[in-house]
From TrEMBL:
InterPro entries, A to Z: ATP-dep_Glu-Cys_Ligase-2 (IPR051680), CP_ATPgrasp_2 (IPR025841), UCP005522 (IPR016450)
Family annotation (SUPFAM superfamilies): Glutathione synthetase ATP-binding domain-like
Membrane-spanning intervals of the chain: none
Organism of origin: Tsuneonella dongtanensis
Pfam families assigned: CP_ATPgrasp_2
Occurrences of domain Circularly permuted ATP-grasp type (ranges): 74-451
The protein's name: Circularly permuted ATP-grasp type 2 domain-containing protein
Gene3D superfamilies with a match to the protein in the record: 3.30.1490.270, 3.40.50.11290
Length: 475
């Protein structure tokens, strides 16, 4: 679907009538004084500033810390819509976990010719250290974020899979807490599923993946690169909410075949490490020898059953956007079912014929780096200048294997609060999924990112986007 198509408005139908999911909210909103709503909008910004809900924007020159823009109008999903989404998300997450296990073992999907071997051969996310090893409980993707976009009443697509270290769950939780504090009466009128129990469920899910050498109640810790990391706020927030220790590399060492953390009573073994450090920096003895962010020898402890690392090293192979283009085949191969949630049509620039098509149509396409994230390293053709398109053309010709292209979708819109009233803006959604030997659990909500600039399709916070609370209605 092209950007020229009128986007689907999630709140109002083409005749301007409020859709059923928004009926309760719309009635409440119409009853409120406009000046009071404007004060509440300022209050929300003050809450986020006071709480310190920020992120870092990296550039070649410097790193700038910014406030996360928050919109106080919720994005609302009906119970029926959510049931449909959760079935598709669970199917996809189970397939992803089976796919990663297969890649590090018999590679049946490659033998069957469903995925080309070249996608592994020179892939930086592929870890030979994981070949033949199965993580505790058989779980690779303990925490998953599936990015969804909507283009019509029943048209949801998966835009990206985030199986490495998906971020943003702290914003989901803070958005809800802020909304409940500001509009408690609204939640008594509209029945909304809770998201506040996510940290408790995360702690329980991680503990269920404890390694064989764990004795008694599992000890869970969150490994952060430190205060200068763009997501440090989230690392500290989740550790605090889970009742887990927040640790950095100097706090950990290998003692008697276990990874132990420094405490006031000496070093104590860690059973499950929720790491927010990339594979490359996790173990200087196995990967980057110059890393100061990881634990020397942790991979040996991991392979010997002394610790669980979440997410498992090597899961980044499933974040690859070239592999994403094969997800319909991957889902069918491991589940025996057609995907319940389709992919966005994807052109693999590594193919010469496809590359020619992409180069001929750059002005209409979105082009992304295979390993890119955060809205960086991408081209949105319809909103780019001739010079930007020409510059990107040179990059594509020089290294086509590094890129995929997709049509410019008419992302659905949700209302945002402006000084002149409600106005539609484009959105996407990242639901958060927990996986353990006990099953798959999907939080009823997620992080809705919104392009606050009128007409913009880029929702990333680093590119001027904001967030809003996501409501899943109760039946």
């Amino acid at each position: 679907m092209s950007a020229a198509t009128d986007p689907f408005d999630e709140m109002r139908d083409p005749a301007g009538a409020v859709r059923p999911a928004y009926a309760g909210y719309s009635q409440w909103y119409d009853e409120q004084e406009r000046d009071w709503l404007k004060r509440k909008d300022r209050e929300a910004e003050a809450v986020f500033r006071r709480t310190g809900i920020t992120f870092n924007v990296y550039s070649e020159e410097a790193a700038e810390e910014r406030l996360i823009p928050f919109d106080m109008v919720p994005r609302i999903v009906s119970a029926a819509e959510w049931r449909k989404l959760t079935k598709g998300i669970e199917q996809r997450v189970r397939a992803l976990n089976a796919f990663i296990h297969d890649l590090y073992h018999r590679q049946e999907i490659i033998r069957a010719g469903r995925v080309p071997e070249r996608l592994l051969r020179d892939n930086a996310a592929w870890l030979p250290d994981m070949v033949g090893f199965t993580p505790p409980g058989g779980v690779y993707t303990h925490i998953v974020g599936i990015d969804l976009v909507r283009t019509g009443p029943n048209d949801f697509f998966v835009l990206e899979d985030n199986a490495r270290t998906p971020s943003g769950v702290s914003y989901m939780l803070e958005n809800r807490e802020t909304m409940m504090a500001m509009f408690p009466e609204l939640f008594t009128r509209v029945g909304v599923e809770t998201v506040s129990d996510y940290p408790r469920k995360l702690a329980r899910s991680l503990a269920a993946c404890a390694p064989p050498k764990c004795k008694g109640k599992p000890t869970v810790a969150v490994l952060t690169p430190g205060i200068y990391n763009s997501a440090y706020y989230e690392h500290a927030f989740l550790a605090d909410q889970m009742g887990a220790e927040l640790v950095e590399a100097p706090d950990l060492r290998v003692i008697d075949g276990r990874v132990a953390m420094r405490t006031t009573g000496g070093y104590e073994p860690v059973d499950v490490l929720y790491r927010r450090v990339d594979d490359e920096y996790l173990d200087p003895l196995s990967f980057n020898p110059d890393s100061m962010l990881g634990v020397p020898g942790i991979m040996d402890v991991y392979r010997s059953g002394g610790i669980t690392i979440a997410n498992a090293p090597g899961t980044g192979i499933a974040d690859d956007k070239a592999i994403y283009s094969f997800m319909p085949d991957i889902v069918e191969f491991y589940t025996g079912e057609k995907p319940l949630l389709p992919n966005v049509e994807t052109h693999r620039c590594a193919d010469p014929e496809t590359l020619k098509y992409v180069l001929d149509n750059l002005a209409e396409l979105v082009v992304k780096e295979v390993h890119g994230s955060g809205g960086y390293g991408m081209l949105v053709g319809p909103t780019s200048s001739r010079r930007e398109i020409a510059d990107f053309r040179r990059k594509l010709v020089a290294n086509p294997d590094n890129y995929i292209a997709q049509p410019t979708l008419a992302l659905s819109t949700c209302p945002v609060f402006t000084r002149k009233g409600l106005a539609p803006r484009h959105v996407d959604l990242r639901p958060f999924v927990l996986v353990s030997p006990e099953g798959v659990e999907i939080t009823p909500g997620g992080l809705t990112r919104v392009a606050l600039k009128k007409g913009s399709l880029v929702v990333n916070s680093s590119q001027g986007g904001g967030t809003k609370d996501t409501w899943v209605l109760k039946d």
